Amino acid sequence: xxxxxxxxxxxxxxxxxxxxxxxxxxxxxxxxxxxxxxxxxxxxxxxxxxxxxxxxxxxxxxxxxxxxxxxxxxxxxxxxxxxxxxxxxxxxxxxxxxxxxxxxxxxxxxxxxxxxxxxxxxxxxxxxxxxxxxxxxxxxxxxxxxxxxxxxxxxxxxxxxxxxxxxxxxxxxxxxxxxxxxxxxxxxxxxxxxxxxxxxxxxxxxxxxxxxxxxxxxxxxxxxxxxxxxxxxxxxxxxxxxxxxxxxxxxxxxxxxxxxxxxxxxxxxxxxxxxxxxxxxxxxxxxxxxxx
Length: 292
Ligand SMILES: [Zn+2]
Ligand SMILES: [Zn+2]
Hints:
By secondary structure, the chain is α/β, with parallel strands linked by helices. It has one domain (6-290): Collagenase (Catalytic Domain), CATH 3.40.390. It has helices at 6-13, 21-24, 43-46, 54-59, 87-98, 130-139, 195-214, 233-238, 245-255, 259-273, 276-290; strands at 71-76, 102-104, 117-119, 126-129, 145-152, 155-157, 167-170, 175-179. Strand 3 (117-119) and strand 4 form a beta hairpin. Helix 5 runs antiparallel to helix 10 and helix 10 packs antiparallel against helix 11. The chain is globular and about 60 Å long. Bound molecules: zinc ion (ZN) (2 copies). One zinc ion (ZN) binds at residues 209, 213, 219, 229.
């Protein structure tokens, strides 16, 4: 796969002419890192996806929040212990990223009668069956929910023949479930001093990426981007926490947020959370947009 030309990238971003001139600067190609050539273990070397331009996205008629379905719901499937990513911070990040109201529901009590589980033979840890959880969530979709996302610190599996899965979603049913279990360095027996920070960052990333899919955004092949596919943890750690101009345009088209206000909110969150590289990058974008 050859690297897309600037012209192909601009075509993928789509028309910005209805946007004020200074807002268009948020979509300038030179502010984004090009997609690196994938290594043999990386996502694109193993899943050669075609990409999804802005025009293709619009033609797929993805869901749009409206006056009825306007809120993102997070559904914890277990108590998040002090060692997990704080739900309050995940909520704040999701609110900033999507510029939409987010509600965290009380822990959903589930038992073996409704959600199958097993002990994974290689890790010895309990895993929950994703299909059962999705079924349970679909029955409980709140009337105002744009989508309902189950979050858990338990490991997941999609089918008895699989070892594990990070998450699974049904766009049609507006439900998804994601596990943060494998984002914890200690899952791999690694001990780092920045464990809490790393886990929060990874959890924010997966929440935004997967919620992006709930808006109909496919994997990105154009730039280094939050919506890049990921085959392993190191690859996913390389992805930025922000959207490339193609995918920013898609999200803007669905939600219609104020681009400046969204970035300002995200920058403040990133600064407070200690995501200094991201806070700095966003700050640069805001300063460029403020120039006359
Ligand atoms: Zn994905
Ligand atoms: Zn992208």
